[in-house]
Amino acid sequence: MIIDFTIKNFRSIKEPVTLSALATNVKEHSDSMFQSKNEDKIKILNTTAVYGPNASGKSNIISAFDVLQDFIVLSTDLKLDEKIKYYQPFKLDKKWADLPTEFEIEFIIENHIRYRYTIVFNSEEIIKELLVFFPKGQEATLFLREKGKKVNFGDYFRGPARSVEKQLLKNNLFLSKCANSNNKVLEEIYLYFKNNIIISDLSENGISLPDFTTQECLKKDHFINKQIISEFLQIADVGIEYLDINKRTFAEDIINFPHDMPDEIKKRIIEDLQYRPQMFHKLFENDKEIGTISFDLAEESAGTVKLYDLAGKILYVLYHGLVFIVDELNNSLHPLLTQHIINLFQNANPNNAQLIFATHDTSLLNPDLLRRDQIWLTEKNQFGATSLYSVSDFDYRKVRSNIPFDKWYLSGRFGALPVIGNFNKWVENAKKKTE
């Protein structure tokens, strides 16, 4: 489970901002959080929503999770003197354009131990990398790596160290290098970032990503299957009777993959193209039902495609108690469907899964659905830098638990609104220029 995530000098984020899933002392919706099983017994929110105007930094918060995950998982693929592509600093201030990016994430893994992992890097190298944990509630360092110094190992560190350090390139993360060198302690943490955080992203490098739901359905003796996904789509009322997944053949050499795409991604895309879901709808003649007709998933509406994609991920995350991170959760979905998805994490979540999402859907700003500390807002200042704050940061005597969050947000009482100019005048000016 993720406790909080701090981001500095990344895209539109200049000064540090922290997204926290740590429950505050607000009283509403006590069932919308769970207590950790570690020594701290801290209370973690199971849902966190991020709002804000277009280009205010919402998606950059989500992207930072994605970048951190990719950096950890793929760090050892970087060759000598290869640029760190994850370095994407704030560019609207010349001073900051050359400063390092910083990520710090606090989390609890399956062993119920709390960790804090920090990385500081630029396009060339890792400047600092720190991993601490909290055995018996007390902070202790596992390792500290700083530019120009030997790695400092704490008393609790076990396994090969100096031999791994000798092979470490300046653009590789020590966590990743050690985990892939059979260090059991760091392996657990590496696998947490690799397997326990599911980030929903339908495209990469302009190519549709492999379909998670289809791949899960193809696994034998698996709890995610065609029937359970069909039931999800039926409940969502998109007019589908059932689905099937068929294998087809095609020439692999017709795919023009980007030259830098990892082989693992290529393999998964090929598998995805081989197995295509078919959606079966009722077929009528003269207003009488005469059977069914199938459609390829690509022929379905954007909303149906997104629901199919989400179905397998939601079920997988809830079943295993993982973290699900989604940008623009509401896109192509009816507001009532989005509310029901959130309610799954709020009320049907025995394994303490987490949902973190960005959205524009103000219908979700409902005190019957979300607590004040579950609602976060992004806003840009006059210099183009993102700030991040929670509704629970406001004076609790003025912002009570039963206020209409949506109306207050749209009226600007929480800030985080776009300053929109005169579109009518824009149309008039455009018309004059064509006359």
Description:
This protein is α+β, with helices and mostly antiparallel strands and 435 residues long. It has two domains: 269 residues, 3-Layer(aba) Sandwich (Rossmann fold); 118 residues, no CATH class. The strands form five sheets. It has a seven-stranded antiparallel β-sheet, with helices on one face. Strands 11-17-18-5-19-20 form a six-stranded mixed β-sheet, sandwiched between helices. The chain is globular and about 80 Å long.
Taking the alpha carbons of the first and last residues, their distance comes to 60 Å
Task: Enumerate the spans where pLDDT stays under 50 for 5 or more consecutive residues.
Answer: 202-209
> Percent range for helical residues?
25-40%
What is the CATH level 1 assignment of the largest domain?
A: Alpha Beta
Shape: globular
